[in-house]
User: Fold these one by one.
Assistant:
Number 1:
Amino acid sequence: MKEQVLEKIKQAGVVGAGGAGFPTHAKLKSTPDTVIANCAECEPIIKSDKYLMEHNADIIVEGMKAALECTGAEKGVLAVKYKNKKAVEELRRAVEGEEHITLHLLDNYYPAGDEQQIIYEVTGRVVPVGEIPIKVGCVVLNAQTLFHISEAVQGTAVTGRMVTVAGAVKEPMTVQVPIGMPIESLLELAGGVMVSDYAVVLGGPLMGRVAEDPRKEYVTKTTNGVLVFPSEHPLVVKKTEDFNYQLKIAKSACCQCNYCTLICPRSNLGLGVQPHKIMQALTLNNADILADGQAALGCCNCGLCTYVGCNMGLAPSRFISAVRQGLLARKVKSNQKPKNVNLFRNESKVPSGRVIQRMGLSPYDTESKYIESIQTPKMVRILLKQHIGAPCTPIVKEGDKVKKGQCIGQVPDGALGAPVHASIKGKVTAVASDYIEITKG
């Protein structure tokens, strides 16, 4: 039975919907004692998981039950922020009578949804740098992923997902959309952009990326948000400003106050991340600090050091990311065991409201209307790589007619990955090296 469920999840193309897109069937082959549902949704403005929990709590819990069956875990925990009262109410109702599934209420801080934070909050365990949650007996799955697991068990492939469209748009919304829908079409659905010169952030405002050309972007299995900001917004500037220019400014402005490290969530878990030392290494050419990689490898790229932690307006997270990428390219690994968790960790947590205020996001932190379904778009472009691992190989050709849910791209034999499926009924109008285009019909 377990192998049959895993195969269904694999063939349905389920991947981590809240992160980098790790194929879920591979994660569920492990043997943890605890499966944790990451229902925190800690990024400001994003409401996709919130509405998913409010309207589909039973399906999410069914997904957790399937995950427990696959892994043999003793318990499942749904970790959700207490502030999302309706979601908490619906999940509590859905787990009533479930012997092995419970709720864990999280404080409203950022980044409560970081995998390391949520494991510590639920179990009191800390995952060593360079290791994965199974090292401490845990598997973490996003709420949307659990929804897709439940659907997969019923024979439904991943063809859509919940996405928040917000920021400087006329009608902010959270909506269920087909995979491959053009981002431009989503913006039109939200009533259009309200400013003439704007940037589009895909994902959450802190960890998301700025789209180079929104006209060439499409919804993937991991797209939880499409956010519009004026191009001159400080958030956009921090993300896009020339790296070398930022480095020059840092050399003159970084005063080594170490506030970035004091509020670093990974540092407070004893994982050795020290943004101020990265800044010192880069600005004072003191490379010895980086010799073993300890100050950078544990970073989760939450951006807190940049958007809240630096009173000089610098961007430590961009420097850490650059150093970390260099270390990983050289295959430097951490051998550091976690140190003691900061006794004042709770006092060091940064409230989400403070993050919103510091980032200038208050005008955009509004309720978005929930839309369960939309009219099928005229065209979708489905990327062949929406996950960690090998890209899919097309198994359709131009001119083929396809049905919604039909597999159109399969993972090469023996490779890690997840198949992709047609998200609308129509005709294949293009098969390229990195995508398959389907036109409604």
Number 2:
Amino acid sequence: MARPDGTRQRPEPPRPSMPCTSTTTRCEFWTWSEDCLRPECCTQHLVELAVFTHDLLRRNDILHWIDYGGLLGAVRGGELIPWDGDIDFGCLRSDLDKIAALGPEIAAAGHKLETSDPLVARIYFSEVNLQHADIFLWDEHDDVLDLHAYPGFSWPGMEDRRSFPRRFVEHLETVSLNGQPMPAPSPVHEFLSEYRYGPDYMTPARGVFDYELVPEVSAEEMTPVVRELLEELGRGERRLITVEAAHPRPETGFRARWASAGRPLAAPPAAVEAAGAELVSASDRGQPAVEELLRSIARIRQTADELEHADATLFVRRLGRRSVRLARMANTRLRRRDRGPAPA
């Protein structure tokens, strides 16, 4: 459908007609619009999970604290950040057996415990509604807590979010989250500044879902220009997510691999130059973080454009890559056959 000015109007992605409950799937609100703002039903479920998890761990004498986005929201404004999709806690890995033993109590409350991830224990709102509280498992040694995190778990501008001194959780302080008291590392402002989001943590900034799109950015490289480019990258990614929701295809999707989905592995130089001319001054060009971010922004834009305008490029590119994979597989099988059976 065309707008009055002649430009193409993006189809509205699907939305549920009713609020989500424990008997329905959760709202995929990040696909509803480029704002990605959480609806009230999901906010209520997350607050309920936060209170339940805190009370459960407290009653069972398990050291725990609120962390990451939940902690940031509590300190910054006393409530969950409007675009957060979960609630995060931290505890010691040595308490994992205690947490696992609470599975029946968690199930009796209508929730579900999952402990298969080596990094985090997770309490789901229900069997079908996958709103969740993450309990990150920290290893303790030499008065330091370490998290064996996924690659890309670092925050742009932070040297390390995988470890911090144990002193921050020896005497916890209380913060308020949506009117509920929660335990927090202390001193909380030093913790957030030095070990989570940097000294400007009180300034709201939207993140990026897929951190493979974000280059390593050191604290020295975190200039105002880089911050603006990170914001632009987040906007571009949110646009791509909503475009995917309006144009569902089995080969794409928020977490689909770029290569198998036929997405461009690198944006054309002309697209990178166009993004650079629009977003930064000539004097900022050449900085590694700036150039890497411009490439990611251009690639996101190109992919969203190809999807939004039903461009055949993605399909042809995906088909070509699949053909290459099949040819390589066939070649490998032929070489194995030519070598004969392996010796017994």
Number 3:
Amino acid sequence: MASADQLKALLQSHIKGDESQFYSIAMQLAAHEAKVGHGRLAKELREIIDKAKSEANRLQPIPLTKPRGELSGLLSVDYPKLRLKDMVLSSEIERRLKRLIKEHAQIRKIRAHGLSPRKKLLLIGPPGTGKTLTASVLAGELGLPLFVVRLDSLMTKFMGETAGKLRLIFDAITQTRGVYLFDEFDSIGSQRGMANDVGEIRRVLNSFLQMTEQDDSDSLLIAATNHPELLDRALFRRFDDVIEYHLPNQKEIIAALKSKLAAFKIGRIAWTKVAQSAEGLSYGDLTRASEDAIKDAIIHNRDKVMQSDLTHALEERKQLHHVQD
């Protein structure tokens, strides 16, 4: 039986967030139970402690200092807290992302069998459909840092310099486990035979192909593009998974709007009618329209978002697209 002092020390260490002290006292309790002949209880306590340590190590973000030197101009880093539940996805995309998350959560078990998890992901689809958000969600789910490659700093006009910078990024991919996002990937992955292609782009693409082939790290590499038709065909077979994103259908539009408006009161809304008026908009558009509708209600001292507020915000988004076109 644990002493009163041990129980108090256990609770105090938990309240203070002192994990090492908490586990130390817990192991003392297990040892005491074994000493007094409660072998089965002692074994169960040790198993619980070991499992808790394992879970804590898996969920805790990898400690990371800010990228230094030349790398600081090539990578930005963040620790997203987003989860899959924060996205509205088709059942197929959700299934594939869950599969990838499970593989990386159990990466040691997979490696022990001589296999590798899916770690190179190509996301394609129109702007605002969730490609960049997916990278944040995967980082949040896995407790990993999200590195975004700054392509404006990567691409230079000097021969060989871009490929050298690309090597720095792949060295970081090997040294620090994380989620690495190459957004607007078509800027370096364009077809090598295009009429307006230049020698430097071809060299960069060849370097990227070679480096991805050699990469055996535990990091997750994500490339995202709005223009898959511009990508060199050799790239597609270098990725473990290619996920295509689409504009939301009516059911997904309703789910997205309800999710974004959940934190504010809403009046009676004919969702089907609203969804019909929102066809052709992306998830990004739906998010901004929802936020605009809430702000409009707030500044006019209304405690609810009405259907007219939402419809007006959605129409403004559509008009913005017409202006851009």
